[in-house]
Design brief:
The complex is a heterodimer of chains A (708) and B (91).
Chain A: E1 8-16, H1 22-30, H2 69-82, E2 90-94, H3 100-108, H4 123-133, E3 139-142, H5 148-161, E4 167-174, H6 178-186, E5 210-217, E6 227-236, H7 249-262, E7 271-273, H8 280-294, E8 301-302, H9 305-308, H10 315-329, E9 331-332, E10 354-355, E11 360-367, E12 371-378, E13 398-406, H11 412-420, H12 431-434, H13 448-464, E14 473-476, H14 482-494, H15 502-508, H16 512-521, E15 527-530, H17 536-549, E16 555-561, H18 567-571, H19 573-577, E17 584-592, E18 600-607, E19 622-626, H20 633-643, E20 648-650, H21 652-655, H22 661-675, E21 677-678, E22 685-686, E23 691-696, E24 701-707
Parallel strand pairs in A: 2-3, 2-4, 7-8, 7-11, 14-15, 14-16, 19-20, 19-23
Antiparallel strand pairs in A: 1-5, 1-6, 4-5, 6-12, 9-10, 11-12, 13-17, 13-18, 16-17, 18-24, 21-22, 23-24
Helix pairs in contact in A: 1-10, 2-4, 5-10, 6-14, 6-15, 7-8, 13-16, 14-15
Chain B: H1 8-20, H2 44-58, H3 65-71, H4 75-88
Helix pairs in contact in B: 1-2, 1-4
The chains are: A alpha/beta (708), B mainly alpha (91).
Chain lengths: 708, 91
């Protein structure tokens, strides 16, 4: 096998409890000292008042900054990673909280102006970074709960190896907020006196916060090389919504995939930075997985969450920075907080910071939804080229083996027929259309979004005729499970912040629906959820395409939104201004291109400008344009000029005003290129070339093409 | 041990079905049958949901494993547990 192109780490940045930059983190790891205290960024009362968190302090003056805390934590660490050199061309961010802390405060105060919620969306964090750091290319946001940042590193690595990017800012950020703090409290997972990972008397985790970033390059020239990101491994337990597989099967699979990807034998690993949250179940499952992968003897290992808490989506990035400090300093970080090791784990964690030769580190991150992501980081090696040729729109096309969509008119056939009859398919998806697709017992606890997503997944999978589970699963959703979020916060605020629903908390994470899809289909494959406003679907297509291009046999790509009566109008201008609220989405099973008939999908790019489209214009029968309500007609007018004389087809009035409607339009387009006409205008648009372009407009422009 | 006349039993049965979204009528929950590990399909998350409900609605905490085993043994067991804990610490 030919060696994979190297991915170089040329910048690191961090902010976490106890350290506001890399230098402070280095000191903290050398002389560990933890400072857990009740959160101050929101007030807790009653029984919650004495519970501890791992809060960042003094990272910047608390000026009258309207930006949510996650955004500010992220920019602090991102600036440190980028330094003064050339700007990154791409951002890949993992986050679960976005602006929720600010949203919670506004909801609690009963504020009904959408302006107060404009930084709620996960996408706004990475867009804030892109604007501040002058990033021109793709700005990707994924959300896989506590493995988010490590998954972001894996996607960044794939982009660099494929030549789609040259310099990627990749990391994660999450702030403390009521949702996660009270959510983990309702799950009885918060350690009353602070977490003690791997301890015989461990009694839970300590929620933390922060941000971590790596600057990753394929051909470094101006910055010193700090480390190599040599490998990554993703997997999904497909076992339970929130509990890890007890034997750590998925965790072991992700570790093995990361080691194999790096070309590293388990015996060559010098240190393992564990996920090690301090909960009974996580630590037991992870210990089982570690023993399965490494056998005997085990490498030195520790969890650093006893020092900095569990910063959720940021954990994988902060711990990657810790791993790079370990490589650079020759330091084995201590398992802070440890008293008596749990003898049942069969592990001997590093007790004190220890000097040692460290040249290969494995870093583990596991999250809700059974989402596992592991990274292999290694000591620097020189850049001896050649780097992959930079070709940002070079991904191949993939064949649509099966598809599904859900609109107010029903599934794909009903929607196609309604459009053909000149009707609109905008509005809510009727319950009767999707509620019976998956058996009742499976969806008992699930609300609207996961039910829509499961129905889409099941239908597309069945239509594809594939008997095996998909080898890659990607979901796009701009707003995630809003009903779960709203119900969780409503109950919390109604009870003076004393009670909340553990079910709603588990259901509220953006990747919960895709986790249920994994359970439904038995898919232990990589499972990524993208949440980048109206570009979420196109980003899911990108991730799936990268997976297929690296040899996966099939990918299930989905995108969906579920309207929520209170939150949707506050968060999405489209829901606030449209006379007809809508939801729904679509799903596709993609397979490598072959000679079989059918539509093809190809990811073309995402950019802050329209220049990248120039090489594609002129070959389409129609250009489908999705215009979010937040961006409007100016952009469309400019585009119409650039694309002239090819017709721009706006479709939101026909398919519904929601952020995943681009997926629905793609499902219609995939049929249209076969049928030879597109029923998305007053009279059907003929498609003699059987090729259409789909553009998502907004703060960035994302594009895919559909052809036959 | 069944006490069909205890008004707490039908109330708890209704809350059980509502809180967990069980696809069954409250009257059809057997007050003597185990809540966990039997036919209801209740798992660890449901258990936590019930713990929150019992604390919120009855002011009774299920704060350790032994209490959980007793309280969630059956609807009868839960009713008895709530009554005993309430009389021990009136609120």
């Amino acid at each position: 096998m030919k060696p994979r192109p190297r991915v170089f780490v040329t910048g690191i940045g961090v902010v976490c409890a106890g350290a506001n930059n890399v230098a402070e983190l280095r000191s903290l790891l050398t002389a560990p000292r933890r400072d857990f205290h009740p959160p101050t960024v929101f007030a807790c009362q009653g029984e919650a008042a004495n519970l501890l968190a791992a809060e960042v302090s003094g990272f910047e003056p608390e000026a009258a900054n309207p930006l949510p805390r996650t955004h500010r934590l992220a920019l602090k660490a991102a600036r440190e990673a980028v330094g003064t050199g050339s700007a990154p061309d791409t951002i890949v961010l993992g986050t679960t909280t976005g602006g929720i802390l600010t949203t919670e405060t506004a909801l609690k105060a009963g504020i009904t102006s959408p302006d107060a919620y404009r930084y709620h969306g996960l996408d706004t964090v990475a867009l804030h970074l892109a604007q501040a750091l002058h990033v021109r290319g793709p700005v990707l946001t994924l959300s896989t709960a506590c493995s988010s940042a490590a998954a972001a590193m894996s996607v960044a690595q794939a982009l660099l190896r494929a030549g789609l990017a040259r310099r990627v800012l990749a990391g994660g950020a999450d702030s403390l907020c009521r949702l996660t703090f009270h959510g983990f409290r309702a799950l009885q997972l918060l350690a009353p006196s602070g977490c003690t990972p791997l301890d015989a008397n461990r009694d839970g985790m300590t929620v933390g916060e922060g941000a971590g970033f790596l600057l990753l390059e394929s051909s470094p020239s101006e910055r010193p090389i700090l480390a190599l990101l040599s490998g990554s491994g993703l997997s999904c337990d497909a076992y339970h919504a929130s509990s890890p597989h007890p034997e750590g099967a998925g965790a072991a699979q992700a570790m093995r995939r990361a080691l194999e990807d790096a070309g590293v034998e388990p015996a060559a690993v010098d240190y393992v930075n564990l996920h090690g949250t301090g909960t009974i179940n996580n630590d037991a499952a992870e210990a089982n997985a570690i023993r399965r992968v490494f056998g005997s003897p085990l490498p030195p290992l520790s969890s650093t969450k006893g020092l900095a808490g569990h910063p959720l989506a940021a954990a994988g990035a902060i711990e990657a920075v810790i791993s790079i400090v370990a490589l650079g300093e020759g330091l084995l970080p201590a398992n802070t907080g440890l008293g008596t090791v749990d003898p049942g784990l069969g592990l001997a964690p590093v007790r004190e910071p220890t000097r040692a030769r460290v040249s290969t580190v494995l870093s583990n991150s596991f999250g809700f939804g059974g989402n596992n992501a592991c990274l292999v980081l290694q000591a620097p090696a020189p850049f001896d080229g050649p780097a992959p040729a930079f070709a940002p729109s070079s991904l191949p096309a993939f064949r649509v083996a099966g598809s599904a969509c859900l609109t107010a008119k029903g599934g794909l056939d009903d929607t196609w027929n309604a459009l053909g009859a000149g009707q609109s398919a905008a509005g809510f998806v009727p319950d009767a259309v999707f509620s019976k697709v998956v058996q009742a017992a499976f969806v008992r606890r699930l609300k609207r979004l996961p039910r829509l997503v499961l129905a889409l997944a099941q239908t597309a999978h069945a239509a594809s005729g594939q008997s095996a589970a998909p080898e890659f699963v990607a979901l796009g959703t701009a707003w995630g499970p809003l009903a779960e979020t709203q119900d969780f916060l409503r109950k919390l605020f109604e009870t003076d912040e004393q009670f909340s629903s553990p079910t709603d908390f588990i259901g509220s994470v953006h990747n919960a629906p895709a986790g249920h899809v994994a359970l439904l289909l038995g898919a232990t494959a990589p499972n990524l959820t993208f949440s980048a406003a109206d570009r979420s679907f196109v980003q899911a297509i990108l991730a799936a395409s990268l997976g297929l291009a690296s040899g996966k046999a099939s990918a299930l790509v989905m995108a969906a939104e579920a309207h929520e009566a209170r939150l949707s109008p506050l968060l999405d201008p489209a829901a606030a201004t449209s006379p007809l609220a809508s939801d729904g989405g679509a799903a596709f099973v993609l397979v490598p291109d072959d000679t079989a008939p059918g539509a093809r999908l190809r990811w073309l790019g995402e950019s802050g400008g329209t220049e990248f489209l120039h090489e594609f214009t002129g070959r389409y029968d129609a250009i489908l344009v999705s215009t979010p309500a937040s961006h409007g007609t100016d952009q469309l007018g400019n585009l119409a000029e650039a694309m002239s004389p090819f017709p721009l087809v706006t479709f939101r009035d026909r398919l519904g005003q929601h952020a995943s409607v681009g997926a629905t339009a793609t499902a219609i387009a995939a049929r249209a290129v076969i049928e030879g006409y597109l029923p998305l205008a007053a009279s059907p648009i003929p498609l003699p070339r059987k090729r259409v372009l789909l553009l998502e407009l907004g703060p960035r422009i994302a594009a895919i093409e559909v052809f036959a | 041990m069944t006490e069909p006349t205890d008004p707490l039993i039908p109330e708890l049965a209704r809350k059980l079905v509502e809180t967990l979204g069980l696809d069954m009528a409250p009257e059809s929950v057997d007050p003597a049958a185990p809540l966990i590990g039997a036919g209801l399909g209740i798992d660890s998350i449901d258990t936590l949901e019930l713990v929150v409900m019992i604390d919120k609605d009855y002011g009774v905490k299920i704060d350790d494993r032994a209490a959980g085993v007793e309280a969630l043994s059956s609807l009868n067991g839960l009713a008895a547990f709530i009554r005993r804990r309430r009389s021990a610490s009136p609120t």
